[in-house]
């Protein structure tokens, strides 16, 4: 599945919550109780892969760098402005 994070708070963000800070925008989503997920950022896409090989691609709106991590079932994507 592939989704896109929009630049506007009213965009098609689905389950993501957006937090805007001075130099960073943070997108966060609860992946639920499903375990065994890992995330990596390649170019402008965050890719979440579960142990059963299911995959989610998230297009990141960024001109700068981005980082993504999963902790306690929460996917966090930090995007530099």
Question: How would you describe the overall organization of this protein?
Answer:
With 81 residues, the chain is an all-beta fold. It has no helices and eight strands. Strand 4 (37-42) and strand 5 (45-50) form a beta hairpin. The radius of gyration is 12 Å and the shape is globular.
Compact overview of the structure:
Helix content is 0%, strand content 54%. The protein has strands at residues 2-4, 17-20, 24-30, 37-42, 45-50, 55-59, 66-71, 74-80.
The whole-angstrom Rg is 12 Å
- The sequence of SSEs as H and E is EEEEEEEE
Structural class: mainly beta
What's the helical proportion of residues?
under 10%
Strand order of the largest sheet: 1-6-5-4
Strand content: over 45%
Termini gap: 26 Å
Please report the number of helical segments.
0
Which parts are unreliable, with pLDDT below 50 for 5 consecutive residues or more? Answer: 7-13
Give the integer mean of the pLDDT values. Answer: 84
**Rough shape?**
globular
The total count of strands amounts to 8
Biggest beta-sheet profile: 4 strands, mixed
Which SSEs are present, and which pair or pack?
Layout (H helix, E strand, L loop, with lengths): L1 E3 L12 E4 L3 E7 L6 E6 L2 E6 L4 E5 L6 E6 L2 E7 L1
Parallel strand pairs: 1-6
Antiparallel strand pairs: 2-3, 3-8, 4-5, 5-6, 7-8
Keywords:
81 residues; single chain; four-stranded antiparallel β-sheet; 8 strands; 0% helix; four-stranded mixed β-sheet; mainly beta
């Amino acid at each position: 599945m592939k989704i896109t994070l929009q630049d506007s708070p009213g965009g098609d963000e689905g389950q993501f919550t957006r937090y805007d800070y001075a130099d960073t925008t943070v997108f966060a989503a609860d992946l639920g109780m499903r375990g065994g997920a890992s995330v990596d950022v390649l170019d402008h896409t965050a890719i979440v892969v579960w142990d059963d090989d299911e995959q989610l691609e998230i297009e990141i709106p960024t001109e700068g760098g981005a980082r993504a991590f999963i902790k306690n079932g929460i996917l966090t994507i930090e995007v530099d402005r």
